[in-house]
Amino acid sequence: MNTDLTIRRAQLYRFLADAFLYPTENWLEDLPALHPILIDLGFNGLQPFPYNLQLKALQTEHLRTFGVTGSQCYETEYGLPNEFRQSQEMADIAGFYRAFGFNVGGQYRERPDHLATELEFLYVLAIKEAYAAGQGIDEHVEVTVEARRLFLRDHLGRWIGLFAESLRRAASGDTVQQNGEGPYVWLARLAASFVRAEAQALGLSLEEPRLPDVQHTPLGPEISCEACPVNI
After folding, report:
1. Which residues fall within 8 angstroms of residue 85, CB to CB, at 6 or more apart?
2. Which residues pair with 78 in a beta bridge?
């Protein structure tokens, strides 16, 4: 295996994981450093984001794109029939994390099914894969590759396209969009392209439903909007 490319994959996963969180630093300033990584990974035709936003403007775009709750960023908000299935999917995701010692925590803690968390987990898998390859531990390489394949098949690969498409549709009226796609629409398109390329390299055919066919996962019966202060 090409360990250098595995490290490149890890770097891109890390960049994407950080960039989808509410920005405390301007990730647009890192795009020049990202460019050679994309070239090495075969993204030669990807056009860079054409606008030079300041951090405050980028924070505004994040809030405009994802809203206060950021519900578009959670896997189990896409098309599950009920809250019980949602709990099962969350447990399955957490099982992947536990198997590889990946703990969800830190200063900005997110749910296990948040896009940034799933991307960070794949970053961890890539680092473990590169380390095992460097040590010549082939069985550990095989374990991490198989975990990556299963996680893409059962989780991230099933909804990343829905996520990118929902952002593109929802952001069509944004101010930045008037002259082209906004930064998070561009970022989502990059993430979806990367995940699909990863799946193809693993010989994996992703099951990606069409966005119009997907309904929002219903809230549990104990959750009601009636008591929300906005409705009082």
Report:
1. 217
2. 216
- Whether residue 74 has pLDDT greater than 50: yes
Write the single-letter amino acid at 28.
L
CB 191 within 8 A of CB 197: no
- Picking from 191, 63, 46, 168, the residue whose alpha carbon sits closest to that of residue 115 is 191
Which residue range forms the structural domain that includes residue 23?
3-231
Token pair of 132, please? 């095992």
pLDDT tens digits, residue range 204-231?
998 887 777 776 777 655 444 444 333 4
CB neighbours (10 Å) of residue 44? 8
CA-nearest of 70, 73, 55 to 117 is 73
How is residue 53 written in tokens?
Answer: 């936003």
Distance CA 145, CA 182 (A): 33
Reference 65, options 21, 24, 28; nearest CA is 21
Q: Residue for token digits 């990202």?
A: 34
Total domain count for the chain?
1
Q: What is the CATH number of the domain that holds 160?
A: 1.10.3480.10
CA angle 115, 196, 67 (to 5 degrees): 30
Six token digits for residue 165: 């498409």
Q: Is the pTM of this model over 0.90?
A: no
Spatial distance between the Cα atoms of 218 and 1, rounded to a whole number of angstroms: 43
Give the span between the Cα atoms of 152 and 160, in whole angstroms. 10
CA distances from 131 to 25, 51, 53, 143, 147 (A): 29, 37, 37, 13, 15
